[in-house]
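Complex record, two chains
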Amino acid sequence: MPTVIAVDAMGSDRAPKPEVEGAILACRHHDVRVLLIGREPQIREELDREIAKHPTVGNLPIEIVHATEVIGMGEKAATAVRSKRDSSMRVGLRLVREGRAAGFVTAGNTGAAMATAKMVLGALPGVDRPALAAVFPTSVGKAAILLDVGANVDCKPQHLEQFAIMGEIYSRSIFGMSKPKVGLLSIGEEEGKGNELTREAYTLLRQLPLNFLGNVEGRDLYNGNVDVIVCDGFIGNVALKVSEGLVSAVRYLLKESLKSTISSQVGFLLSRRAFEDFKKRLDYAEYGGAPLLGLKGVCIVGHGSSNSTALKNAIRVAAQFADTRINEKIEKGLKSIPPRREPPPGPGMQPGSAPI
Amino acid sequence: MPTVIAVDAMGSDRAPKPEVEGAILACRHHDVRVLLIGREPQIREELDREIAKHPTVGNLPIEIVHATEVIGMGEKAATAVRSKRDSSMRVGLRLVREGRAAGFVTAGNTGAAMATAKMVLGALPGVDRPALAAVFPTSVGKAAILLDVGANVDCKPQHLEQFAIMGEIYSRSIFGMSKPKVGLLSIGEEEGKGNELTREAYTLLRQLPLNFLGNVEGRDLYNGNVDVIVCDGFIGNVALKVSEGLVSAVRYLLKESLKSTISSQVGFLLSRRAFEDFKKRLDYAEYGGAPLLGLKGVCIVGHGSSNSTALKNAIRVAAQFADTRINEKIEKGLKSIPPRREPPPGPGMQPGSAPI
């Protein structure tokens, strides 16, 4: 039985094209069935175009589920989630909640995706704050994950503890790491270094049954020394966006420098393949989007600029997330935390039973 | 009258070579006199070697000031500062305090430099926490600064307010910006976005007589949209180290990709000049080190891997810092802040009158 994945067909900047193409690629390469959610006529048109080009596409297990509304990239998450009850995001996540899909993928508005997923699916028992985990390449080839990058700001040490457990399980299940190295993002390696939050979190993390390395620094994100990096969502979001900005700047400067002389232009042409390889290695698209961890369900958020490869990979990851039963493992893992007197409140978290 | 700059000759990873060469370059190109601080025999040997190669070096205004102790890169700042009373850092900063040098430059242990400078020089009136400002290139060519990156953790909104004033004055004085754009590093552009600290700091910053843009995001560090970016030292330090790590990873991946085929190796040779230009643009060395702002005196901290160009530029910046009377401007600027009922305490700050 193929795993059913609901895909927000209206999410990405160039929707629904990358979504339709991504669904086709995913169905060709993986054992999945895809439900494309959104405005039916638009999706149908794109799908028919593909079928006209490659008639075998008509035989793939792809269906369209109509949703009348679309949440735009610029829309405020809170407002959009409240007002648009028939958005492609909400319809897709409802399918997950009802068990008609095993997971949901969107390349749309990240804030709205997180808010809708929290509202529609709710958090797993033991999870105060679901976390968005960024997956990125390191210079040694393997992927690392950083969480939270989804803006759970002003986190308490207990939240970081939960992030560590969820991230470690994800790393094992999706990347097949046997004993992923877990680090706490701080500003010095010794135990006493950092701020109030990291010092307290350090004490909690080192008591967990994890391969905890202790504090790691910003430079460890990309060197492959650590597989799972845990931090407050404000820090994680800044780290992620600084990285995106720097990669853009580096590409721009490299292009500018290469434009400067004829010999370097010739050089650039000769090394074009190498540059494509280089770009691919830096490309988030290869890594299948950012999972939201700690929800009663599977939700993967891709970049707005996602192409068909990124969507194909996100669909594959969503299926793998469901098939390897990550959420069951997370629930079990969180039970291993010793109970404390004052459980932290979960601000920003909506109950799963909210009206949908 | 040349401006006298004291240089820690024992600071960098390959000290005293880059320091001696940097001093020579600085004296040749700028109106400065350099005091090289550290173990006299070692510095003398290096200087004599240079004089043997280029006899005119003997005529440059370079002197050696002996200091018996050296603070290592791996040493804990607090311990080193307390125990090594005749370190090159302490001797150099004492010369600044006594008015015998207009500024101090070191490429040594950043933590120790900050702690020693705070202890020996003390903070300017109105400054609760001196801040380390990182200077870096943007894709549009001009430099931007980020502060604090020196690990003033768990900052209060009032600290960020002071950072904004100090950073803005620095940007005007050193980079000649007429109305530098000041941004608050956060995770969304609207006023309400961010964490507790940034939301409160926003309210304070927008009341200052500055060109305040509001919240900026991590990706704005390198795109040239903002000239002065203000944040808590934990965030700034993470942002800086993430950037360093990413640049290393990018260089490595680019090299790996270029090694892959013959045509790209030929391409690389043809575009070598472009790569050198590219590396130079990414290179912190061009920007003259990180100033410590808010001290009664001038102190510039360079990277441990500083080369002679980086040290030359740091010496130039130290002289410019002193000559343009940045500290007087900062003192005046801070007086423009409306007084509040509870002045924040300045943890981590030592009185300037501590025994030296």
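Note: The longest helix of chain A spans residues 233-259.
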